[in-house]
């Protein structure tokens, strides 16, 4: 039984899952919207929203935490802290939107677009 096991594994081991989420997070920050499968978008949403919430705090510790969560890639972290997070200063959550698309042609996977609101 899968009671309490809420992690989507995507047929990958732990390191591959972390690398996948890293790539998705960095692409979303760089481009503002990405098209991916619905399951990957649903898994990405909590991770990116927690980062935006932490970037809104504005303390040195929160900035360092955001940089470390973005794998010490300071360009993307600075974009998140300086450009993206200030747009949502008055919001307490709900920074992203997932829009469902049709099925992908090759394997009929459910596709979605995740974007910053």
Task: Summarize the SSE layout with pairings.
Layout: H1 14-31, E1 33-37, H2 38-57, H3 60-69, H4 74-84, E2 96-103, E3 110-116
Antiparallel strand pairs: 1-3, 2-3
Helix pairs in contact: 2-3
**How many helix segments?**
4
What's the CATH architecture name?
Alpha-Beta Complex
Distance between the termini: 37 Å
Overall mean pLDDT stands at 93
- Structural category: alpha+beta
Number of strands: 3
**What profile does the largest beta sheet have?**
3 strands, antiparallel
Notes on the structure:
The protein has 117 residues and is α+β, with helices and mostly antiparallel strands. It has a single domain, classed as 50s Ribosomal Protein L17, Chain: A (Alpha-Beta Complex). Helices cover 50% and strands 17% of the residues. It has helices at 14-31, 38-57, 60-69, 74-84, and strands spanning 33-37, 96-103, 110-116. Strands 1-3-2 form a 3-stranded antiparallel sheet. Strand 2 (96-103) and strand 3 (110-116) form a beta hairpin. Helix 2 runs antiparallel to helix 3. The protein is globular, with a radius of gyration of 15 Å.
